[in-house]
């Protein structure tokens, strides 16, 4: 579903990504780990060209989104993105926030888009909160609205950029529960997360990034229990 080949990224003279390769199969959950500044968020954003790779190629379901002839907006519409900070419009209800993409990108009629939005909100456990504004919702509920917004676009895959990092501890599980359900249903996902319990249950592969390179990758259980690289061992020890 997602393949990255030799991804490099420069910010001025700073070489942030140094030739990262990754392959995520249909229905697979891949987790990116690494310390702050390792390049993992930059790499995630390169997968849908929110950040433009300086070199390398990204293919989504066989189509190169780094090819200049590719309609990147069409491809990007099929790849959901969930950020740390929700990015909801404060003047719109939960239903209106979720319906916005189907109306303006999928070109659905408003009534149809609202039906899709209502179904998506129900899927994340917010059927009773469709008329509420973001400020009336908890952080966990706002993040679930953001997930519903991605689901309403009927994506082929969803990218999660540390979706629980801005949440109070008691709100983390309600978001992780939704993500676990999506994983069980076969949604292709790339997740930046350091929630070990979630990764152990939901992630198929772990990719450890350090200083812009992949230092280790492999099945989740193997990497967590028997990491091969010293940097991975140090990082996991710090998490525990």
Description:
- There is one protein chain.
- The chain is an alpha/beta fold.
- Helix content is 37%, strand content 25%.
- The chain contains nine helices and ten strands.
- α3 packs parallel to α5 (139-151), α4 (110-123) packs across α5 and α5 runs parallel beside α6.
- The protein is globular, with a radius of gyration of 18 Å.
- The two termini are 32 Å apart.
Short description:
This protein is about 35% helix and about 25% strand. By secondary structure, the chain is of the alpha/beta class. The model has no long low-confidence stretch (mean pLDDT about 95).
**Order of neighbouring strands in the sheet with most strands:** 6-7-8-3-9-10
Q: Structural class given helices, strands, pairing?
A: alpha/beta
Estimate percent helicity.
Answer: 25-40%
Number of strands: 10
Order of helices and strands: EEEHEEHEHHHEHEHEEHH
Report the β-strand fraction as a percent range: 25-35%
Largest sheet descriptor: 6 strands, mixed
Distance between the termini: 32 Å
Count the DSSP helices.
Answer: 9
Q: Which regions are unreliable across 5 or more consecutive residues at pLDDT < 50?
A: none
What would the average pLDDT be, to the nearest integer? Answer: 94
What is the CA-atom radius of gyration, in angstroms? Answer: 18 Å
Question: In one word, what is the shape?
Answer: globular
């Amino acid at each position: 579903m997602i393949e990255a080949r030799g991804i490099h990224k420069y910010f001025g003279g700073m070489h942030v990504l140094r030739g990262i390769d990754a392959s995520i199969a249909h229905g697979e959950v891949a987790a990116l780990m690494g310390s702050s500044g390792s390049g993992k968020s930059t790499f995630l954003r390169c997968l849908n060209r929110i950040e433009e790779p300086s070199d390398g190629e990204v293919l989504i379901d066989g189509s190169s989104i780094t090819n200049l002839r590719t309609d990147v907006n069409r491809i990007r519409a099929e790849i959901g993105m969930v950020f740390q900070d929700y990015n909801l419009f404060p003047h719109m209800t939960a239903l209106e926030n979720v319906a916005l993409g189907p109306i303006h990108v999928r070109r659905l009629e408003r009534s149809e888009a609202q039906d899709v939005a209502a179904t998506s909100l129900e899927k994340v456990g917010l059927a009773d909160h469709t008329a509420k504004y973001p400020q009336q919702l908890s952080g966990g509920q706002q993040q679930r609205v953001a997930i519903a917004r991605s689901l309403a676009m009927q994506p082929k895959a969803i990218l999660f950029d540390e979706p629980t990092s801005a949440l109070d501890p008691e709100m983390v599980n309600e978001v992780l529960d939704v993500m676990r359900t999506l994983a069980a249903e076969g949604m292709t996902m790339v997740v930046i997360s350091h929630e070990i319990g979630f990764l152990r249950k939901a992630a198929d592969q772990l990719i450890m990034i350090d200083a812009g390179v992949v230092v280790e990758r492999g099945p989740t259980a193997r990497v967590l229990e028997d990491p091969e690289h010293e940097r991975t061992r140090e990082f996991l020890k710090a998490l525990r």
